[in-house]
Amino acid sequence: MTPKATPMFETRSSGQSSLSLVLGLIHEHRAMTRSEICSLTGLSRSTVAKLVTTLVNLGFASDTGAEQIDRVGRPSMGVDASKEMLAISVHPEVDYLEIKAVAFNGTIVHSEKHLYDEPIGAYQAVDDMVQVIDSLVADLETSDTNYRILGIGVIVPGQINSSTGIVRQAPHLQWSEFPIRDLLTERLSMPVFVANDASLGCKAEMAYGAAKGATDVVYMHGTSGIGGGVFMNGTELKGFRGYAAELGHMRISSGKELDYSGIQGTLEALVRRDDLEAVLGLKNVSDEDLEIALLNNRTPESTALARRQLEALGIATANLANIFNPEVFVLAGFLRFLYRFDQNYFHRVIKKHAIPAVLEGMQVFVNELGTNSLAIGASELVFQEAIADPAKYVKRK
Amino acid sequence: MTPKATPMFETRSSGQSSLSLVLGLIHEHRAMTRSEICSLTGLSRSTVAKLVTTLVNLGFASDTGAEQIDRVGRPSMGVDASKEMLAISVHPEVDYLEIKAVAFNGTIVHSEKHLYDEPIGAYQAVDDMVQVIDSLVADLETSDTNYRILGIGVIVPGQINSSTGIVRQAPHLQWSEFPIRDLLTERLSMPVFVANDASLGCKAEMAYGAAKGATDVVYMHGTSGIGGGVFMNGTELKGFRGYAAELGHMRISSGKELDYSGIQGTLEALVRRDDLEAVLGLKNVSDEDLEIALLNNRTPESTALARRQLEALGIATANLANIFNPEVFVLAGFLRFLYRFDQNYFHRVIKKHAIPAVLEGMQVFVNELGTNSLAIGASELVFQEAIADPAKYVKRK
DNA sequence: TTTAGTTTGTTTAGATTGAATACAAACAAG
DNA sequence: CTTGTTTGTATTCAATCTAAACAAACTAAA
Asked: Is the CB of B11 under 7 A from strand D?
C-alpha cells in the first residue's frame, strides 16, 4: 500500500466553517444576540440556533435570556463569550516576568509581575515561567469558577520564527536560537504560541484599539529599539521564515550612525529613545515621565533633536506608506509622544516623501490600548487557534 | 419588511468550493490525471469524478483517455485544461498597443502589436482597444475552434486602484484619473480587469517562471522607472486603495537627486536606465542591446556607475528583505543585467544592510519569462475570477 | 497463459451542513 | 384586545462529500 500523500489544500470539511465564523464574532463582540449573528453572517435563524447551541455545549459561550427592549417584535436571545475559557500570556523582559490570564470575553482574570534584580538567562526564564504557570493553574483549578485553560501565548521582544517557535534573536534579553515553544510545550502539556511583541501589539490595536475595523495596518513600537507589525488585508505579514516587519532596520539615510544591529543609517539608528532622554538630562525614566518632560520642558536642543527624529520617522512612514498603502498607521511606545511633540511637522515630512495617492484616506493614530495590550494580543494567538477548530476543545468535566 | 442586511462574511455555499480548487489545479498544471487530483486535494475518487465531469460540461476542461503506462494498476484518466476558453490581454504603452489571446491552458492563441508614431491620449487608446478587440472577437467567432472569451485583462504601466479600476497615474502614458475599466466594460460587454504591469509580471513569474512554487515574493521591474510587485503568503499585496508596492519610491539615501515623482534620494532616482545608456554613449536602445553593451564594453566609468547603482539596489533589496522576509527576489527589466554586471558585489551589499535572519534561504533570481509574461499575468486576472466561480460561466452553444 | 496484486473508475448508501418553510412565541402600538 | 413585527423552533429538502463495495485495467510473477 502506498502511503497516502498529504493533500496540499484543505477541503471543505476542515475549512473555515460557519461554527468558526460565529464563534469568532461572539469573541469579537463579547456579547451579542442571535439575530445580530444572523444579519452579520447571512446564516439562517435555524442554523444560527444550532451553532450557538453547539458552542454553548462546548463551553465557548453562555446563553443569556432575552434582554432587548423598546423594539417591536420578539426580543432576541443573547449569547455571551465565555468567562471561563482562558488564555495565559507570558511576557519575559529584561527586568521582569509578567503573567496574565485573559478570558475568552477579553477580561483580565489574573495578573502578576515578578521583578528581577539582574537579567536572567533563557533557561532560567523558562523554569520561572513553568513554576509561575503551574501554580497559577493550580489556583485556578481550585477556584469557584470552572476555568478551562486553552493555551499559552508568549510575548517575546525579538525575532521569532513563527513556524518553529524558536527565538532567533532577542537582543535585550540576550537570547538567541532558543527553542522556547517546544521547551514550554513539553513541560506544560498545553498548546504554546510564541510571537514578537510588536506584532502582538498591532494585533491587539486592530482588534480592540486604535486600528479597530481596519484591515491594512502598519504599527511601529518604540522601546529601546523600534519594532514593527504589519497586517495586510486582515492577515499578518509573516514572510518566508516569520521574520518580516523588521521596520526598525529600514535604511533611510546615508548617514554613518549605527543601529543596534550595527547597520548604518537605519530608522533605529536615527530615532533613539536614549538620545531623547539625554537631551532632557534624564536616564532610565519611564515612558510617562519622558513624555511629560519632552512635551513640557521644550528647549532649543530638545526641539532640534525631536525635529530630527520626527523627520527620520516621517521619511520611514512615507516609505512604508509607498510600500504598503495602509489604511491606518499606529505609533506606540515613545514614538507616541515623539509624534505628539509636533504632529504637523511629521505630517509635512510624510507629504513630502510619499506619493500622493497612498496618503489619501491614510490615518495616523497613537496606540489606544494601555498595559494590557500585549496580553490581549497574546491571548488572541491562543483564541484564534481555538476559534479555527472549536470542536477540538471539548468541555472539561 | 426590513431590507436584509448584507452579510459581512461569505458563508459556505459561496466560499471556496472544491470545484474551484480542482479547476485551479487543472489550470495550473495544464494537464493532469484524476488520481493526481485526488492525492493533491485529498478529495475522494467519487467526488473528483463528479467535479471533473461538471468542469468538462462547463467547457473548462476536456477528458482525455487513459494514457499512463509502465505502472502497476489501472491507468488514471487524464484531464486537460481547455484550449478554447480565452482571456484577452491588452497592453497600452507609450509607442504601441499590444493585444494577445491566451487560452485557459496557457497557450498564446493570438498576438498583435500596433505601433504608434506619437503618444496617443487615453480616450483614443480606448477607442483603438475596442476596435482591435471587436475585430479579434469576430475573427475568433468564425474560426473552426469553438472559442469562448471569458474576459479582458488590461496591463497598465502606472498606479491602479484595483477596486475601482481607475488609472490613478500613468506617468509615461500621461494618463491620470482615467476610469479605464468602466469605459471598456461598457463598450465591450465583457468582464474587464485592470492591473499594474509589475504586479502582473510578478504574478506570471510566480505561476510559471523564476518564482514558481514560492509564496513570498518581491519583484522589481526596471523600465524607465522602477515598478514593484509583492506577494505574501501567496496573495498579492494591494493595500487599502490598491496602490501598495510602489517600491521605486522607497527612499534610501539622503542625496538630493529627484526621481520621476520629484521625491529625493529614492531608489528610482539612484538607479536609472537613462544613466546607464548615457555612460555607454547610447540612447533609446533596446534592453537586449543595452545588456550587451553594459556587460561587454566595461569602462572605468560604466563600472563605477553600475557599482553605484548596484549599491543602491542592494540597499533597497536589503530594506525589502528586512520588511518582507521574502523567499524569492526577482529582478526584471534592466535590473536583470544590472544584477548580472556584478552579482557578487550586489550580494555583499545586501549582506551588509540586512539582518542575517532574513537572508537565510532567500534567493535572488532574474526573470525567466520573456515577452509573454505580462500577457500571461493579465490572463490570470481573468482566469482566477472564472476559477473562483466556474458555474457562472456556462458553456456557449 | 494464468494468477495475484495494485490502482483506478463507478455505483450506492450515508453523513454533514445549511437553507427554506411553516408555525408558535414575545413584543409594541393602536 | 387586535394587528403587525420580529424571533425561536421543528421539519423538510438540497447540496456536497465520504466510505464501502465492486468492477475494470494494468503489471509482475508463477
From this structure: no
Grid coordinates of A313: 520617522
Q: Are A152 and A189 found together in one domain?
A: yes
Instruction: Please check whether residues B72 and B124 belong to one and the same domain.
Output: no
How much is the pLDDT for A263?
A: 59
Query: Is A5 a residue whose pLDDT tops 60?
Result: no
Domain CATH for B41: 1.10.10.10
Q: Which residues pair with B229 in a beta bridge?
A: B219
Domain boundary among A27, A54, A81: A81
Rounded Cα–Cα distance for residues A212 and A235 (Å)? 14
Residue A366 has pLDDT above 90, yes or no: yes
Please name every residue paired with B219 in a beta bridge, in sequence order, or none if there are none.
B229, B330
Phi first, then psi: give them for residue A374, nearest 5 degrees.
-70, -40
State the average pLDDT over residues A312-337: 95
Contact B41 A319 (CB under 8 A): no
> Which of B 199-238 lie inside 8 A of A, CB atoms?
215-216, 230, 232-233, 235, 237-238
**Average per-residue pLDDT for chain B:** 90
The answer to whether the CB of A214 falls within 8 A of the CB of A364 is no
pTM of this prediction exceeds 0.85:
yes
Strand order in the sheet with B226-232: B235-236, B226-232, B217-222, B328-333, B363-366
Question: Which cell numbers hold the place of A52?
Answer: 450557538
* Domain shared by A221 and A361, yes or no: yes
Q: Is the pLDDT of residue A69 over 50?
A: yes
pLDDT band at A107 (very low <50, low <70, confident <90, very high): very high
CA of B68: nucleotide with nearest C1': D26
**Model confidence at A1: pLDDT above 60:** no
Residue B120 cell numbers, joined: 496617443
